[in-house]
Request: fold
Amino acid sequence: MKSLLTLLFLSCFLQSSYAQRGTFTQTFMKDLEYRDGTYTANLKQNVFGDLIFTDSKGNAYTYEQKYLNKHFSEIGSGLEGKRTFMKELIRKSRRENDYQVRYSIDIFGEESIRDNRGYQARKGKDIHGEYFEESDGEFKTAIKRNFRGELEYQENDFSATLGKDIFGKWSYKDSDRNEIQFSQVTWDRLLKRFGSDKDILWFMIDKMFALNEKGGYGAAH
Reply:
């Protein structure tokens, strides 16, 4: 165990030191260039304010301006913020080849991530509330709130809902024919522990998956 921890520490240390040993330079156009032996990388800002990272391994990461403003506002327009950001991208790209990904937010506020390996994710808000979807071409998950105010979760052929009935009782249901109704006392305890109905739904799904893997229930099997 001690030797394994040592190897893990050494691996993390080497990864973090990659971007430290190379040389950063700033071009006339205020773009950043990095060189470490045969490895090179560039961080450019286009006329729209997007940041585009490319390197000699065929990787390309595009962060559109709206996405940067929301999630990386600390970068700013200064050199130091961009250099810190670029160091993180260099660490990521060292483990990749020919990986291309775009992070964006559209005019309706929907965030999206798309890459050249079939992965895509969407996150936003509609008239019923927040939603999130992601897929890698084979595996797909989604969570949203329906018109009744219930939370709906979908993972390939599995689905689950969490919401209140007409009597104000909270209940969990899923496609494996599990149905659990919570007393007000239990619901209040869950809400105090997890903070939101969404986090309670994640907790219930995790528990049901764990039971299924152990053979703990079999209503649908």
